[in-house]
């Protein structure tokens, strides 16, 4: 029987585990014992064996892997200690010196650092293209192109990538594609169904969903997982059993949370657009978003991140953020609590004003990660904060 996402989120992982508990057990053991040498040999010779050594696998990892793979529609998955663990492990597993990688001009900060800097230090060529121009990916292809890295929607302006347009070209040329699906979550977007080979997540965001754990996942075919796993155990980005358990608990409610978050964010974005103190709102669900048609074609819902500019400058954005009472002022996204951040303030420690301008980070910009609070409270809070401007 094919289950819907809501049912998968509760039951998918139960099938990989013989435990007679309703809630998953946390296997807090660094290593597992064998009855005899024959069993020891079997445990240590099977890749990803869940009862050998926790860096190689753990029963609670096994459950997370099954659940996220089912949600993303891939054959299997690997789990890592963080989203960057997933991204770095995947890229390092797939490319070698002399290969060429295509990425986007906008990525999550540390992914951008990996593409811009680290890969080039290891002799991998990288071309970054404007993700809103689907044909730019094809133009960037070289004979040695091995991998195309996608991320949609992306910070800071919530721009989108036309996944099908890119994967059609990549498949025809035998080039692998990897998509960071953190912002959308599998409830809103399933990149593998649009032709992406490897879907990665920072599970720290929507999958975990409670701002209480750090983790990452790599969803792909069994063949790719086996390749990537060898690099994974070498790099050692191991998801702790406790965080794996928290991730499982978080994912039980993912479909419900995303449903509420989608509705809250769409309503909040439309509400913000009507406020005289607001200059511009960026949200893929709004008709004013330059790629709204693509968003409607590619996504089931538009996610919880809303970006907007306040009329005025740095000081006005700062005043609004500090007047808001419901969202915490914190630099994460994707959880049950709403979070808000003055974007330029978040980057001020690491970027100069000129770098921020070049990266499309206006000083009056605010990122609001909408949670599952009541929408009337979120709107009333915004109104009282806007009144201070
Ligand atoms: C947070 C984030 C990451 C990195 O995840 P960590 O769990 O912090 O390592 C990668 N990609 C996106 C889109 C993110 O938001």
Task: Report what the structure shows.
It is a single chain. Helices cover 42% and strands 15% of the residues. The protein is of the alpha/beta class. It folds into two domains: 5-251, Aspartate Aminotransferase, domain 2, CATH 3.40.640.10; 254-386, Aspartate Aminotransferase, domain 1. The strands form two sheets. Strands 1-7-6-5-4-2-3 form a seven-stranded mixed sheet, with helices on both faces. A five-stranded mixed sheet has the order 8-9-12-11-10. Strand 5, helix 8 and strand 6 form a beta-alpha-beta unit. Helix 3 (59-72) runs parallel beside helix 10 (241-252), helix 4 (83-94) runs parallel beside helix 5 and helix 6 (134-140) packs parallel to helix 7. The structure holds pyridoxal-5'-phosphate. Residues 82-84, 108, 151, 180, 182-183, 202, 204-205, 214, 216 line the site of pyridoxal-5'-phosphate.
Question: How is the topology of this model organized?
Answer:
Layout lengths: L4 H7 L25 H9 L13 H14 L3 E5 L2 H12 L5 E5 L4 H13 L3 E5 L4 H7 L4 E7 L11 H11 L2 E5 L4 H4 L9 E5 L13 E5 L1 H14 L5 H12 L1 H20 L4 E5 L9 H7 L6 E6 L3 H10 L4 E2 L9 E4 H6 L4 H6 L6 E5 L5 H12 L3
Parallel strand pairs: 2-3, 2-4, 4-5, 5-6, 10-11
Antiparallel strand pairs: 1-7, 6-7, 8-9, 9-12, 11-12
Helix pairs in contact: 1-3, 3-10, 4-5, 4-9, 6-7, 11-16, 13-16
Bound molecules: pyridoxal-5'-phosphate.
Pyridoxal-5'-phosphate binds next to α4.
